Automatic annotation (TrEMBL):
Protein's recorded name: Tetraspanin
Function: Structural component of specialized membrane microdomains known as tetraspanin-enriched microdomains (TERMs), which act as platforms for receptor clustering and signaling. Participates thereby in diverse biological functions such as cell signal transduction, adhesion, migration and protein trafficking. Regulates neuronal differentiation in response to NGF by facilitating NGF-mediated activation of NTRK1/TRKA receptor tyrosine kinase and subsequent downstream signaling pathways. Plays a role in the inhibition of TNFalpha-induced apoptosis.
Keywords: Glycoprotein, Lysosome, Membrane, Transmembrane, Transmembrane helix
Transmembrane segments: 12-38, 58-79, 91-116, 214-238
Similarity annotation: Belongs to the tetraspanin (TM4SF) family.
Signal peptide from the UniProt entry: none
Location in the cell: Lysosome membrane; Membrane
This protein's GO CC annotations: lysosomal membrane; plasma membrane
Membrane association type: Multi-pass membrane protein
Gene: Tspan1
Taxonomic superkingdom: Eukaryota
Family annotation (InterPro entries): Tetraspanin/Peripherin, Tetraspanin_animals, Tetraspanin_CS, Tetraspanin_EC2_sf
C-alpha cells in the first residue's frame, strides 16, 4: 500500500475507535448514573419505571452491578478516546492491558463456573455462607437481594436451608426466611415441612446450563468486541511507533 493509503487507513481506524469508545463512555455514564440513582432512591425509580415491565423492577437489586459495569465502561471508553485522539502509545498500551486483564478474568470465571462446578461451589460457600449468617436480616440491601433471588429462583440459601442455621435471622426470628417455604409462609413455630430443599447455587447453575446457547452467544459477542478493541489498540500502538 502507498503511504497515503496507509495514512487513510490509520485515520479511519483512529476515528472509528474514537467513536466506538465515545459510545462506550456514554453507555458507562448512563449505567453508572442509573446504578447510583436506584441505589440512593430506588422508590422514585420504581414510581417512574415500575409500571413498564416487571423485569425493570429487578434493576433495583443489581444497582451495585450497574455501578461497577458503568465505572469499567467509563474507564475503558475514556482510555480509548483519549489514547486515540492524542495518539498516546502509553495510554493505548494501558487500554490493551486493561482489556486483556478483563478478558482473562472472564475466561477464568467461565471455566470455574462451567467446568469446575464443585470448586466454584466450594469457593462461593466459603464466601457467601458466612455473609448469609451475619448480614441476612440485618443489612436491608443484602436481605432484599437474597429475598428476590430465593423467590424468583425458588431456592433457599446458597446450598440449602441449613445455611441459615445459627444465623442472625434464625436467632432473631426463630424461623427460616419465608421465601424458603415457597408462596406460603411458615407457621408460628419453625419446621421444615414445605421448606424448599434446593439451594440457589444449583438452581442458578441449572438455569445457566438450560440457557447456555443464549449465554454463550452473549459471551461470544462481548469477547469478540474485546478482542477487536485489543487488536485496534495494538494496531494504533504499532503504527504510532513507525510514525
Amino acid at each position: 500500500l502507498s503511504p497515503g493509503t496507509k495514512m487513510s487507513c490509520f485515520t479511519f481506524i483512529k476515528v472509528m475507535m474514537i467513536l466506538f469508545n465515545l459510545a462506550m463512555f456514554l453507555a458507562g455514564g448512563v449505567l453508572l448514573g442509573v446504578g447510583i440513582w436506584v441505589n440512593v432512591d430506588g422508590e422514585s425509580f420504581l414510581k417512574i419505571f415500575g409500571a413498564l415491565s416487571s423485569s425493570v423492577l429487578q434493576v433495583v437489586h443489581v444497582s451495585y452491578l450497574l455501578i461497577v459495569i458503568g465505572a469499567i465502561l467509563l474507564v475503558i471508553g475514556f482510555l480509548g478516546c483519549y489514547g486515540a485522539q492524542k495518539e498516546s502509545r502509553c495510554i493505548l498500551m494501558t487500554l490493551f492491558s486493561v482489556l486483556l486483564i478483563i478478558f482473562i478474568a472472564e475466561i477464568a470465571a467461565a471455566v470455574v463456573v462451567l467446568v469446575f462446578t464443585s470448586l466454584a461451589e466450594t469457593l462461593l460457600t466459603g464466601l457467601v455462607t458466612p455473609l448469609l449468617k451475619e448480614k441476612y436480616g440485618m443489612n436491608d440491601a443484602f436481605t432484599q437481594t437474597w429475598n428476590v433471588t430465593m423467590t424468583e429462583v425458588h431456592c433457599c440459601g446458597l446450598n440449602n436451608y441449613t445455611d441459615f442455621n445459627n444465623s442472625y435471622f434464625y436467632e432473631t426470628h426463630g424461623s427460616y426466611p419465608r421465601q424458603c417455604f415457597g408462596v406460603s409462609p411458615p407457621l408460628a413455630h419453625p419446621h421444615l415441612r414445605g421448606c424448599l430443599p434446593q439451594g440457589c447455587f444449583k438452581q442458578i447453575l441449572k438455569e445457566i446450563k438450560t440457557n447456555a446457547g443464549v449465554a454463550g452467544g452473549v459471551a461470544a459477542g462481548i469477547a469478540a468486541l474485546e478482542i477487536a478493541a485489543m487488536a485496534v489498540s495494538m494496531y494504533l500502538y504499532c503504527r504510532l511507533d513507525r510514525k
